[in-house]
Each structure stands twice: as C-alpha cells, then as structure tokens.
Amino acid sequence: MRILVLGHTGYLGRHVAAQLGALGSVFGGGRSPDADLRVDLATADPGRLAENLADLSPDAVVNCSGSLGADPVTDAEVNARGPAVLCAALRRAAPAARLVHLGSAAEYGACEPGVPVTEDAPTRPATSYGATKLAGTVAVASSGLDAVVLRVGNPIGPGATPMSLPGGTALRLRRAGVDRDAVVRFGDLSAHRDFVDVRDLARAVAAATTSGPLPRILNISGGRAVPIRELVRELAVVAGFRGRIEEAGVGSVRSARVAWQCSDITAAREALGWEPRFTLTDSLAALWASLGAPGEADSPA
After folding, report:
1. What domains appear along the chain, each with residue ranges and CATH number?
2. pLDDT of 156-183, one tens digit each?
3. How confident is the model at residue 250 (pLDDT cuts 50, 70, 90)?
4. Per-residue confidence at 299, pLDDT binned at 50, 70, 90?
5. pLDDT for 15-35, tens place per residue?
6. Dihedral class, residue 157 (left if φ above 0, else alpha if ψ from -120 to 50, else beta)
7. What is the pLDDT of residues 34-83, one digit of tens each?
8. pLDDT more than 70, % of the chain
9. What 3 state SS string does the chain have?
10. What count of other Cβ atoms lies within 10 Å of the Cβ of residue 121?
11. Which of 119, 122, 125 lies closest to 141 in space, CA to CA?
12. Is the pTM of this model over 0.70?
C-alpha cells in the first residue's frame, strides 16, 4: 500500500506517518526539503499537483496539514483552500484513493454543557480557525471522493506543540523549575475541553485508511470534557512543580466563547473499532518526558 501523508513533519503528521509505516510505503508531502512530494497546499496549482500525484500513484492520502489559528488569511489559505485544491487534484489524478482529512472539533463551536456533540450536530465555529476548518471539511465531504473527515478534539501527548495549551503549559512549568516561590499565572481556567492523545489519533487514522466504506465525518477525541484547570494542575504534579498556580483575569477568546466542549465518539467506535487507550495522566506524563533535558524545550520549534 502506498500512502501519502501531507504535513508529515508536523506534530500530528509525525505520529501519523510512524503509525502508518506498518501498513505499507509512506511518502511525506509538504514544504520541507526532504519531502517526497514538495507542495504547499496554500498556494499549490491543482493541475500541477494532479501531475505530481499521478506520478506518485498513492492508494491513500492523509492530510495532516493545517494552520493553527495563526491569522485569518493564513487560516483561509491552508485550512479552506488547501483541502479544496487537494480534492480537485485527486479527482483528476487518483480518484480511487482513500482520502483521510483531519478536521477539528472547533468546527462545532459552542456546545450545550453536559451534552457530547455527535457528527450531525449544528456547526457554529467561534473563530476563524474553526470556520476555515469547517470550510475544509465541506470541501472534502462534498468532493465525491472516497473520503472521510476525522474531527479531532484537542491533541495532547508527546511532542505537543508550544502553541497548544498542554505544550505551552509544560514549557512554562519547565522554565519555572522546582522553586517553591515560583508563580505561574494563567487567565480563567474554567473552560472544559475534550483531549485526545496523539498516539490514539494516529491509530484512528490508520484504521480510517484501511477500513471499508465510512461515514463522511467521524469524531475522534477522548470522549470526556476535562476542566482546563484539572489539566494544568495534573501536569504540575507530573512536572514536580512546587510553586503556585494562579488564575487572574480572563482566559483566551476561544475559552470565553466556547466554555464547554466534548465529542460523542460512538460512531468512530462502530465504524473503526477504535477507542482511546491513553488516559489524561498517560498523555501528560508522555508530554513531560518528551521535553527532554532542561533547556532543550525552551525555544519553540
């Protein structure tokens, strides 16, 4: 089996590519110099991309590329235009290939507290990131290809990007050290999020790559709403942090707009035979261990 992983050098892409290695030959796609397919979906020409895809002749394509809310323009170019261009190229070059696209639970927007959202829930994204990820999902789901969108919760686990809440918190705790007088301050931490270990996500992608016909959209998450405050305090325990954690002022804009989020993962269990294996404690321990020796993680990659 020949599998192309777009965004193979990113946080999610690295784990996905490693998991897919057991299924066949994995090719990396993206902007990095060592990519087997050099492409930037934000600016790619569909015709040229189709030619390159025809040469590669993949049996499956996994799109892990995305913009993490950098700015509205970049979000639109990468998260909305990118999947549309990819679908147009695949229709011309490899219409029989399975396409697995990583969407986001941010597409749902605000949810009713206590009610996990299913795949047919209304989508009301609260940020440009969520809105552009939704546009990408629509492009894939309506493409006519053999495609599935995995709507991913908040990824966590080894190697988490410093731009994420878990990765950024781990770095702040590392810098604070074990000084009992250290104080790490946050905004409001009362929001709830649904976290999924990146290794569990990679298993879900592998299952989606090889399964028979699938629904157009599947939720992939931990299936549990976790108070961000709980995550921060548990990570502090894992880190051996002995100082104080203080909350002051407001949290992020997204936390203010989306106070509670949790995805129903019943459909993924039924369609993929998949469910999360790693607990939140497992994920936080792996995240902390992945930081390496003190000082190594102080400069965001």
Report:
1. 2-156+196-223+262-276 (3.40.50.720)
2. 999 998 989 999 999 999 998 878 889 9
3. low
4. very low
5. 999 999 999 999 999 999 999
6. left
7. 999 999 999 999 999 999 999 999 999 999 999 987 789 999 999 999 99
8. 94
9. CEEEEECCCCHHHHHHHHHHCCCCEEEEEECCCCCCEECCCCCCCHHHHHHHHHHHCCCEEEECCCCCCCCHHHHHHHHHHHHHHHHHHHHHHCCCCEEEEEEEHHHCECCCCCCCECCCCCCECCCHHHHHHHHHHHHHHCCCCEEEEEEECEEECCCCCCCCHHHHHHHHHHHHCCCCCCEEEECCCCCEEEEEEHHHHHHHHHHHHHCCCCCCEEEECCCCEEEHHHHHHHHHHHHCCCCEEEECCCCCHHHHHCCCCCECCHHHHHHHCCCCCCCHHHHHHHHHHHCCCCCCCCCCC
10. 17
11. 119
12. yes
> Pick from 154, 5, 138, 35: which is nearest to 81 by CA?
138
Q: Which two tokens stand for residue 257?
A: 């707009």
Dig out the tokens for 111 from the structure. Answer: 């949810």
